[in-house]
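user: can you give me the structure for this one chain? tokens are fine.
assistant: on it. calling the predictor now.
[tool input]
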Amino acid sequence: MSRNKKQLNKLLSDIEIHLNSGLFSKAEPLCLKAMEMAPDNVDVLVRYGCLLYSQLKGDKAIPFLEKAIQLEPNNSQVRTYMLACYKEVQDYDHLLQLADLMCNSPLNDSELSLAYSCYLSLCDWASAQKLEQRVLNACIAGRIDSTLLPGILLTSNGRPDISPEMDYQLHRQWGSIFPKATTIVQKPINGHLRIAYVSADFKRHP
């Protein structure tokens, strides 16, 4: 492995650590350095796009992600970030186009779930209906990225064709993935129990 390749890999690793830790100010100069070294490297483009998206600069992230998808059309990670950016900047035309691509040519079940959530958020009930059972069954079977499950539970809330049993199984799957809440040990109460009420208008009432 060449020296430049090792240096680039080290940069990418450090960027990933800073992004996961939310240290965007530390990740930014490393991203810029990596872009100077390898402007056509997909991993570099994705890291920089992810940084910009995390900084609420989705409009600036999109060109880098679009370049990455041109280099690797079947990169699911890039498609996922692009979907998030289009949604953030309210570019609904491109959002719907990408959702249709994920629906018709999904790279995995997680992409189907993203398309389903997009259709619901855009009130395209007919398209969502076509995917609904397939997506929900994939969720219950554990074939969906666990980080997407809370969003699916939220967007599908109140859907008329989801049975109580299906809803129960979805929440059961969520409970099996995420950590259990810490058990609260009730302390014995000595004397009277005092209950305080806080005014919602912060004492600004007459």
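assistant: here you go. The chain has a mean pLDDT of 87. The chain has two domains: 1-90, 106-175.
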